[in-house]
Amino acid sequence: MIKRKLLEDIRKHLTKPEITLIVGPRQAGKTTIMKTLEEELKKSGEKTLYLNLDIEYDKEHFHSQLSLLRRIELEFGKNKGYVFIDEIQKKENAGLFLKGIYDIGLPYKFIVSGSGSVELKERIHESLTGRKRVFELLTLSFEEFINYKTGYKYEEKLPEYFAIEKSKSFVLFDEYLNFGGYPRVVLEEELSEKLNLINEIYQSYIERDIYYLLKIQKLPEFSKLIKILADSVGKTINLSEISTTIGVSLKTLKDYLWYLEKTFIVSKITPFFRNLRKELTKSPVYYFYDLGLKNFSIGEFGKVRDYSFLFQNFVYLALLEKVKDTAFQIHFWRTKDKAEIDFIIDTGVSLIPLEVKYKNLKNPEITRALRSFIERYSPPQALIVNLSLYEKSQINGTEVITIPFYKLIDYSFK
Fold it and tell me: Which CATH superfamily is domain 6-136 in?
């Protein structure tokens, strides 16, 4: 079994009365985590009930709150018990449904999961304000992937593993960049089966989440948008141009982009700016939550041609891991005279510019843009992420750290 870092956080929350709500994309491993937790609770002598709204027999118990409570009482009586509900997005008005049961104050702990539909991310969240904690389970992070692939022998020293086992580690790195982190894809050895699995994941997303849940009728246009975004990773996009290209109105395009964000396919970052006259303030940049899905959508699954922007997407995912439990924000920086910084980490106290270079640097490459940002904002620190070089230098009081991508695993932003 692939170890998930989120599992320990969810374990700790089992002692809390609030609903434990696990959300994320299809096939990310939510059901595996639920089954693992249930098995652990059973072994410790706790009573559990597992219901799945994908199963017709289980679905019968969700016709009303009373029918569900009767099913739970049949199992636990009025005693403490753990109720697992999978695929909750299949229940209409699920948030209000759960709220009514929770507010009765019965001694049942609910652990609920569902795919990242708009219903789940928006309406359920609003209905359950103060009654739940949300855990987002995405596809495997690079750290989770490498730990699994190396048999968990180097869990506490992955950067050292990369520094010493250069050939082996870079083969694994290339595999992650090509195929991404969907657990079933990672577990499969055969290329043809990996391709079948990612195709199934992609089609089920389009046909279920998009068509059935979101009622989008123009599926070809939606698919074309995904391809355009995959081909534009790391680049600012022009919404008017894209709406013309795929043949939908600007309003519909904005709706589509919103759907893609809410269903854990893409993540949007906006420009950092303080000078309206000199810095770009509007055009966003999009990155994919899973590199394999991005590659598949443009026909490069397992056969990537250009790694530069893909590597930039990889670094973005690593940064998301770093800031997810903080108030830090990730932006990018562009000026009207075309100076560009890939990422700006805004800690609330300081700014950290970060540039990405898909190169084995021999010496630090301090670009004109980085110098310009340092002159304007005097950040305490700046990072240049590359494939191999680790070196520190100074520019006007700013510490510039050239760092290999694998050292991001244990790097701490301050």
Answer: P-loop containing nucleotide triphosphate hydrolases (3.40.50.300)
